[in-house]
Structures are given as C-alpha cells and as structure tokens.
C-alpha cells in the first residue's frame, strides 16, 4: 500500500509518478480569474425558510448563481459547526494513523462501502494525483453499514453518522430550493433521483514540495446529482468560469455546492455541471469532505418534460443511471466525452 499519508515527514521532492506533463499542470499565475470574481454566497437562514417570500428569494438566488457558475456557496445552512468539526478531526486522525491500521481498508474495489485508495477508477494516465482518499457510503445509515466504517479513531463512527444525517437534510433542502427556483414542484428531485446511496469522498492532500509539478485532481465534472463540499480552511479548489480558473477561497462555516451531470440532463441543460480541479500547496495539508447525492442505479434519467419546449428541444436521451455510471469511468471523467454518449443530435 503506497499512500502519501504514510509519510511522517514531508517529502523533499515530488516522486516521478506524481509529476504531470506540463500541459496538465495547474498554472497558478495568469490562469486565474481576477480576485473580484467569487462564487455567490447564499444565506439559507439556518434552514428556517417558512416565509414563502423569503424562500422564493433564496431559491431564485440559488438558480441564478447556478446558471452563471454551476457552483454556489451556502452559509447559515443549519449544520452545526460542532458536527462539522468533530468529523473533520476524526477524519484527520484516520489519515494520521500508522500504515498498518489503514492497510485493512486499502482496496480498489468500488463495491466496498468503505475503502482507502490513492487513484480514481477513471484515471487512465501514468501519473498519480497528490492525494489519498476515503471512499465511503454514508447514507442511509443502518447498523450493517456502520460496521463497515473503521472503529479507529474512536470518534470516527459516531461523528460520521452525525455529519451524514446533517448533510442529508441539507442536500434535500437544497434540492427542494433548486426545484422551486426553476419553477418546478418542490419535490421534483425527490424519489429515485436522489435516493441512491449517498457517497462521501474524504480527500487528504499532504504538503507538496513542488506544487507546480503535480495535481490534487485534474479537471472533471461530477457524475452524480448534487455535491456538497466542506473545504476546511486551506485553499485548493478551482472552478472553470468563462474559460479561466476561479480560485474558491475557503470561508468559515460555509459549504460549497455544485451540480452533477444528472441535474444538467434532467433540467435539459438549464443548469450545467461545471469542470473543477484541485491544486496542492507546499505549506499545509488540506482535508476536504465531498458528499455526493446519487440517483438509484436503476433510476430512469432523462430531460423532464416540463424542461423541454420548442425553443429548448430535448438535448439528451433517456438512460438508466447505471449506464451513465459505467460510461463516466470509460470516458475517464472527461466532460465532453461523457455527455456525447447521451446527447441527441439533430440534422
């Protein structure tokens, strides 16, 4: 098992397998949008949006931000800071454990409900990302699922359960607001579209001796419905915006939210899944928690009839989500290659 987190002292140089070709590296100069461009920050008023006028205002803000960026940030979201902090601390301690304690969970088998790995299944190049990650199913929670989670560190299981329940509630609230902002029924994204196993990627990016040579993650879009990210206090996420890369600076108490391919397809392109990437830094380790809401594997996905019109004809064919899941891996996560398999071409 070769994990970056197994190294107690910072590496003096970047090993050859982590060095990317120049055309794949993140340029930190001249490739970023100006500092006055940032993702919209939307106040969810602690989830207490019973006032219909206020609710419509928030829903409109979310969809407007989503249409421009494919991403937005939320504050006063109702998830307790103690809940976030407790799981972030437990996850950090997991990566700090001795190699032998992590070896039990090492696997490239995607069917496992909990595993630690260092390569994505759709990574086809010889280079390795500068990250280790936990891939786990985190919701719905039952006793059998919890038994697959590690018993060490001691607080891992309980803090993950609390965090997962809170993130499920937040994601469902967000999906209702997105539906309302589009003029759809509040429960539009409910049912099989969001009832698949919720997954979490706990990403660990240790300090890198030369960030100009490697990447935490190459540009990609998410194959799921919705992603909710806890960045922590270390920058690393970049979002493609108007042909350039926008740095998403971490803000206290904030979650970053982005649309996956399934929202783009179901809304017939009204909302888009936008490319993003992760760079590394030499000073600090970075830990991010990405919670990914999925359809069920047998969910039939396609543009909703209410999102199709004479001016906006059907852009995508119908498919079962399990087909998309496999196509995403085969296309190595490339946005255009993935969507090409599902687009409808006319004349």
UniProtKB/TrEMBL annotation:
Keywords: Iron, Metal-binding, Oxidoreductase. PROSITE patterns: FE2OG_OXY (PS51471). InterPro entries: DIOX_N, IPNS-like_FE2OG_OXY, IPNS-like_sf, Oxoglu/Fe-dep_dioxygenase_dom, Plant_2OG-oxidoreductases. Pfam families: 2OG-FeII_Oxy, DIOX_N. It comes from the Eukaryota. The keyword Iron applies. Residues 196-295 form the Fe2OG dioxygenase domain. One of its GO terms (molecular function) is metal ion binding. The keyword Nucleotide-binding does not apply. Belongs to the iron/ascorbate-dependent oxidoreductase family. This is Fe2OG dioxygenase domain-containing protein. The lineage of its organism: Eukaryota, Viridiplantae, Streptophyta, Embryophyta, Tracheophyta.
């Amino acid at each position: 098992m070769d994990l970056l987190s197994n190294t107690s002292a910072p590496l003096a140089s970047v090993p050859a397998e982590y060095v990317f070709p120049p055309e794949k590296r993140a340029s930190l100069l001249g490739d970023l949008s100006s500092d006055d461009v940032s993702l919209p920050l939307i106040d969810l008023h602690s989830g207490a949006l019973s006032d219909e006028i206020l609710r419509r205002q928030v829903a409109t803000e979310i969809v407007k931000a989503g249409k421009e960026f494919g991403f937005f940030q939320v504050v006063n979201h109702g998830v307790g800071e103690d809940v976030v902090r407790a799981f972030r601390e437990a996850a950090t301690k997991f990566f700090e454990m001795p190699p032998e304690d992590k070896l039990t969970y090492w696997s490239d088998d995607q069917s496992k409900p909990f595993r630690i790995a260092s390569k994505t299944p759709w990574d086809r190049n010889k280079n390795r990302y500068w990250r280790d990650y936990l891939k786990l199913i985190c919701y719905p929670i039952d006793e059998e699922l919890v038994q697959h989670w590690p018993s060490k560190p001691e607080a891992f299981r309980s803090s993950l359960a609390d965090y997962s329940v809170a993130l499920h509630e937040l994601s469902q609230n967000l999906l209702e607001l997105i539906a309302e902002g589009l003029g759809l029924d509040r429960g539009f994204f409910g049912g099989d579209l969001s009832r698949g196993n919720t997954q979490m990627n706990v990403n660990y990016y240790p300090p890198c001796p030369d960030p100009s040579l490697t990447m935490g993650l190459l540009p990609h879009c998410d194959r799921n419905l919705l992603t909710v990210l806890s960045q922590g206090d270390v920058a690393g996420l970049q979002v493609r915006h108007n042909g350039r890369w926008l740095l998403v600076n971490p803000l206290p108490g904030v979650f970053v939210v982005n649309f996956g391919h399934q929202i783009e397809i179901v809304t017939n392109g009204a909302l888009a899944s936008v490319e993003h990437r992760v760079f590394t830094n030499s000073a600090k380790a970075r830990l991010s928690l990405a919670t990914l809401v999925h359809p069920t594997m047998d969910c039939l996905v396609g543009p909703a009839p209410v999102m199709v019109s004479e001016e906006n004809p059907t852009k995508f064919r119908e498919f079962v989500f399990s087909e998309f899941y496999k196509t995403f891996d085969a296309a190595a996560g490339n946005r255009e290659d993935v969507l090409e398999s599902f687009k409808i071409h006319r004349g």
